[in-house]
């Protein structure tokens, strides 16, 4: 009794104080709101009158993108603003947030209603959840009205393929149709061991075993961060097996529009890949601390691994330089096992997107700006910097970096196939791979192109399997545990949830395919 | 003073026994070993930060530099942003530490004061906020939409200004100060604020120094609120600058399907190590001044102040 | 009753005024934003705002309890925290007492500073060091083991060692800060106690045992009580940096925070729900422990 009253009194005192605080802060917000209202309404007006030639009201667009603020950005943006002064009259306020924190910043600030006008997001980030919760504006109408160049600089197919839940929520940023995958290899070791250039997976295996036999101080392969099971399956051009959900727990293949359940129909290709990796691990081909020591590329750079799996069709100069700094005699080469002559199934999905949040106050102007930015001349400015200072053109579709660096980051806001230039410093071979990946004619359209699985109805089950999977995926895909036993344990826990998800997925797929016809 | 009585009855021989000598020895051995275990890794970090990335990668840590290079520092400290960030960090740390120690100690004094009937309630109010942090979204709305602190240094200083943990640490110290001092002062007609600022504060220097040290370290290393609430680079503290530099090195982990030259050759591991040194540098300068308050000889410590 | 309370406040108005800044601060920055926890019970949609979004009751809590893995992670969280509190306290006290006893001032100051140094190493750097010690191929410990003629241990594949490893790292990193707190507490002990003990002929061991340690008791109890409320929170920074995605070690190292981070990276509401659960459990724990403390030693309890 006594205590309760004590508490009540304290609470009362506290409330009194609090009411004072609220009064104060209300006062403040009261002052500022009309101003922003006015700003919003003027923008609306000016946007509807955009057909008229006179300059629009000045607007500052708030853009949120990941990464570190690039050197010389100020100079480039100043030039851009100068070019736009008589037409769009847009000022750019770009915020860069480090990659590690980007997802958190995006999620929290948008949830609190922060009025960013353009934000970066991606399927590998938090895009799906954000769209499901209604954070991003559907863009069709805006694009039709203000974004002709945005649309024309990307093929129709790319738009269709990158619809999410049936609508265009984001502008796809990208030019390739398959995620490039390959391996860095120590050329000097290969030559020392007398092995001819590696063409096939079998050659590769022979190389790895030869390293194991003759070079005890170095791990034959360190796939850290980029596991070999996914790598083998991604390059599969025969049955076209693809992960549908939960790291191949649900998969599809042969482009037949079915979501298979790995617990019910264990795919031979998948299992073969798992067994290979397991064998390599027990034979000490794979670095024994692969799960603990992070990036394989780092181990390769340190000269501690004779090969490493790597993203992209590329052997970056940075990797070669780092390797040389450890061992001047070392040489690196890049191999990949895709076959240019076989067509691959692709869903033409891109990896990066630009979105307009619903909380933006300048949606029209944001799209107008992007439209401007996707025009070739302006794209060149924003993507490569000031011509003659940061870069120079090599023909119409390539560029060369000059000494003063303006880092390349169109993938975060404007990247498109129409305006893109290849880096002239690439080797002939790597350029060949990139061009192959870029040309849609090398790919068969996936039946599920444009389909997004909406897991709202089976959210709990789906998260459950995701969490269970995360506890076995590493050991299983890097070969550090007995696959049969681990798989059985996983199956026992995850199978009931998976079944539910599979049924829901198949239902949505059937519906999607029916609507498509 | 219940502890005194234990000795009045038994008198023990004056000369040090063998066991005491052994104890003495083991005391020095323990402290020496622990110091070594703690200082060697730090030494490795310092040496590593001055080592060329190549040799750092292939040789790992070593006690003596193999191939000296300042590249890590050059990468970390290039550009004007460093100076701006250093300045911001110093402002945040100084202002934040001062205000935080002030309001925390005032609250702790009240929570420890026997005159206050509701000190239990106050303690609970404080402890509760330690258990239930503010929801992140709620906090963002408060700071940005209601208090309009976005893009100000206050948005970094104010969150966490009052530290419940520190408050309780002070409470436990204040409780050890004999209550008679307080009573005597009250009888002499001293006001509460006089008792606190003129009597309690001076004799509580050890705990104030300790709390001040912890608070300033927290502000010095603060990046999270800066990341959330400050978009303008000219207001970024040091840690957020370093953090985004670091994560950019790692960019390949996050971006897929991109073009070639986004990763420049930076000394990733060396930069991590240099970061430690850059961050700790100014603290090492201030530390001895703080240290003297809690490392003393046994003879000092009379409560009379 | 109300009048009595007003009386109490009026009588001590100057003291309550001293507490006022902190109280206002807590209300504005801690209690008001707590409405954000509502998100755990809602299907949050930004267009509808926090209030307007649909109520879904305890739906977001399902994730955690849907299979029995929550028992494993909860156990790991509690167990690792217990080890850390227990050994952390013991090591900090021993170190502080020894430092306090050392008469050679320069040695004392330098060693005290050294012991504090690990506190400044970021987790990423600590992770490098741990790897340099424990790596299978060229880790320092395995090198020593093989030279002694025994087989090396593949540490990163042996979960049974990890509670000890994690606790060692925590203690090593935290002992300096802990020692500072106890040193501060000791420097408040009146020299008179020691003096009279010396007159009574107590040697230094006895002085430590009968004077120093009993006087440190309130601080020990206070720090433990402070730690108890957070006992359901795992040390995410350490575990995520050092164990990371290495699932081989999950049986002993996966704590609630890392599990939720992996499973719910993009789901606001569910992660908020788990945080709420952790907090509530912490509240229950601290209330119980504080109640027990009150029974045993009234002056040391929190409230």
Explain what you see:
The complex is a heterotrimer of chains A (517), B (305) and C (303). Chain A is an alpha/beta fold and 517 residues long. Chain A folds into four domains: 41 residues; 201 residues, D-Maltodextrin-Binding Protein, domain 2, CATH 3.40.190; 143 residues, D-Maltodextrin-Binding Protein, domain 2 (3-Layer(aba) Sandwich), CATH 3.40.190.10; 96 residues, no CATH class. Helices cover 46% and strands 13% of the residues of chain A. In chain A, the strands form five sheets. Chain A has a five-stranded mixed sheet with strand order 2-1-3-12-4. A three-stranded antiparallel sheet of chain A has the order 9-5-10. A three-stranded antiparallel sheet of chain A has the order 6-7-8, with helices on one face. Chain A is globular and about 75 Å long. With 305 residues, chain B is mostly helical. Chain B folds into two domains: 48 residues; 232 residues, MetI-like fold, CATH 1.10.3720. In chain B, helix 9 packs antiparallel against helix 12, helix 12 packs antiparallel against helix 15 and helix 14 runs antiparallel to helix 15. The longest helix of chain B has 32 residues. Chain B is flat and about 70 Å long. Chain C is mainly α and 303 residues long. The mean pLDDT of chain C is 89. Chains in contact: A-B, A-C, B-C. At the A-C interface, helix 1, helix 3, helix 4, helix 17 and helix 18 of A face helix 1, helix 2 and helix 14 of C.
